[in-house]
Amino acid sequence: MSIWDWLLNPSGLTPHGFCLSWAPGLVALHAGSDVVIGLAYFSIPLAIATFVRRRPDLEYGWVAYLFVAFILACGATHLFSIFTLWVPAYGVEGLLKLLTAILSIATAGILWPLIPRVAALPSTAQLEQLNLRLRDSEQEARLSNLELERRVAERTGQLERANAQLTEALAERSQAQQALARSEAEFRASFEAAAVGKIQTDPVTGKYIRVNHAFAQMLGYEPEELIGQDGWSFTWPEDRDEGREGYARLLSGEVSTYHREKRYLRRDGQPVWGRLSGSIVRDPDTNQPLLSIGVVEDVDDRHKAQAALEAAKQDLEAMVAARTAALAQRDLLLREVYHRVKNNLQVVDSLLVMQARQTSDPAAKEALLSLRSRVYALGLVHHQLMGSANLNTFDVAPFLQELATNVVEGGADQDIELNVEAIPLEVGLDFAIPLGLLVTELVTNALKHAFPDGPGIIEVVLERGEDGGIALIVSDNGAGYPAGGASGDSAGAGLGMSIIKGLVAQMRGAMSVRTENGTRCEIRLAAPVAP
Amino acid sequence: MSDLADCVLIVEDEFLIAEGLRFQVEEMGKVVCAIAATADDAIAEAQAHRPRIVLMDMRLRGEKDGVDAALAIYDTVGSKVIFITGSREPATMARIDSDHPAAVLFKPLSDRQLRNTIEDVLAR
User: Fold this and answer.
1) Which CATH class is domain A324-525?
2) What is the pLDDT of residues A33-60, one digit of tens each?
3) Does the CB of B27 have a partner CB in chain A at under 8 Å?
4) Contacting residues of B for A351, CB less than 8 Å apart
5) How many of the other CB atoms lie within 10 Å of CB of A19?
């Protein structure tokens, strides 16, 4: 028997339908059921395959293909069963079943160990929950992301600002360094090139650290020769002690600056005057003196000039003192002269008093009394001169008041009112004596002649005229009488008149007399020139 | 004061002036008890006569001046002293003011001034 026969027509065997006795019902049932099963078994793996193809992400997808193969094989056996109803191809059918068996066994064999793994796969619910949690955590992540971004932005801002500040600080630092360099250069230039002397000294040792050209030159040295030298050795020996005292006060902080004019010792041994302004640079933390700084101005010329000026001033003061003494001496002598004049006038007055007492003739007595009042006028002028500050001039107003009062009170028995009105006027001896005598004569005349029977008023006025001159007016409200009492009714009258006329002429004046409601005598005089 | 005599002591070293003063005082109806030319004389006369009024010249012969005499008289007798001076020098005036002057008169002095001053001083 060939393989072909074994496959398709095993000898002696009948088709399956024969077993069913070809009963149409049974054959149809088997055939129909197998068709449906076969078709269904063909459809299911197609669906599975389609599904698996669409979901390439499924784990263990290859197991599905085993199912596909095994179900397809099952389907094929069922469809082949229909064929075997009529054809006894039981060899092929057996091979088909063998194939199916292998696939089934393989599937079953693989499936069991796979169960725990597949069971471990998350379910949809789990996945959904997971998904939810994932969404939540995504939300959280987004929020935290936002927060993070915000913080990053904030931090970035901070960093940017810090960066800007740093940049700015760097720029400032650079500027400061430049400024420092510039100020150092400026300082060096101003120190070295200054017209005034500049020195820097070690506050502990007192040695010069740095001196400029001007200072060295003032002392007759080069700067290099002075550096390292003791500063005090260049101070004039007599000025050292005082200088050290002042410097000690500066060093102790008692004073913050130190100004002093002192002599320096020049190389040639001569002194040179300098004005030193000193100060101390201190450590800001410990306050320890770090550096003494001095500015020394050459004031030698000024000092010499001042010394010369001082000497000249002293000479001048001595001269002034001598002149003052001479003037005081002159004043003393002048006062002595005035005093003696007055004393002599007093002697004359005493003689007149004595003579009048010896005289019995009333006219002679009256003449002597007139003389006394004239002498009094002379004495009063000297009295006023002695009381004046310059011993040369005095104010005429109180003089006239005193003079006229003396005449009226000394010569009148009746009740006479006297009014004196005089402008303030500084007069000297040459003006005052004739003026005083004129007033004495005129008032005496008024007393004698104006009021034969009773009281009256006498006025003495000294005023400035319109022409700038002086006007002396002596008036009364009496009976009226010829000027100077020229009627000759008394011994002194004629003399009085000639005295008045003479004095008016001497003073280059002019006199006018009016007799209405009394007598008014006006004398116009040139103003006194300053003596 | 009541024990003082109603008379005037004149202290003046120049004879003529002293005489003139004496006449002037007597014209006024007053009595001149003495005339002294030095400070010591003046003190002695004042103590002897105890005058109510002393007319005192400032400058006197000798070392002492009128103020010295006036101070002594004022202390021992109590007379009123009227100074008569030819000077108006500040130093002199200050010296007079250091005493207790009843009045100061300046030479030459008129009858009126002398009379008014004496009457004034006596009235005090």
Assistant:
1) alpha beta
2) 989 998 998 898 889 888 888 888 877 7
3) yes
4) 16, 20
5) 11
